[in-house]
Design a protein that fits this description.
185 residues; mainly alpha; two-stranded antiparallel ribbon; 9 helices; 2 strands; elongated
Length: 185
């Protein structure tokens, strides 16, 4: 019986660079901004429809307090939408709409789809990476193009292949089939 460890999987495709990832991030934040804007419009419509806005204005008091209350509520809604948006897309397909548009995909370092734990750690890592943006800038210097959030979650970001070529499979499955064919021939 052999005690050799299996070789680590070979991930085909190049690691996605800083600028394509940054552009995808900006696209995603614009989409999130649009979603939050619509949510805030709907909330304000219903508050005014039932005159709850007048009641809240009387309770909150000054205009400054109303602005602060609105700002804090919009920040809270933005956080909730952002977390749900990122985690759900990462787990479902490995691509947010911004990443899909730019042809990049998030996956675990072993080539598998993100699990809830990886997605949550990556989201927490986003907030850590935002400190002076050092975690994002690190992508420029890392050999695997991993930011702090990727290292924390054990993820990589690669350029994705056209869906028709991989037929919905993960890269690791494609690598295994390629290796099996090479062994047979």
């Amino acid at each position: 019986m052999s005690t050799e460890k299996p070789a680590p999987p070979v991930i085909l495709g190049r690691y996605a660079g800083f600028f394509s990832r940054a552009a995808a991030y900006i696209i995603d934040r614009l989409i999130i901004f649009a979603i939050v804007f619509v949510i805030m419009l709907v909330i304000n419509y219903f508050l005014s429809l039932f005159r709850i806005d007048q009641w809240l204005a009387a309770r909150v008091g000054s205009t400054t307090n109303q602005i602060i209350t609105t700002l804090l509520s919009s920040i809270g809604i933005t956080l909730v939408v952002s977390i749900f948006y990122d985690i759900s897309f990462w787990m479902l397909s490995g691509q947010t709409p911004g990443k899909r548009f730019l042809g990049v995909r998030v996956m675990r370092a072993d080539g598998e789809r993100l699990k809830l734990r990886n997605a949550i750690l990556r989201q927490i890592g986003y907030y850590i990476s935002t400190i002076l943006y050092l975690g994002f800038i690190w992508i420029l210097f890392d050999n695997r193009r991993q930011g702090f959030h990727d290292k924390i979650a054990g993820t990589i970001v690669t350029y994705s292949w056209p869906e028709g070529r991989i037929r919905g499979t993960f890269i690791i499955e494609r690598v295994q089939r390629f290796q099996d064919r090479r062994l047979k021939s």
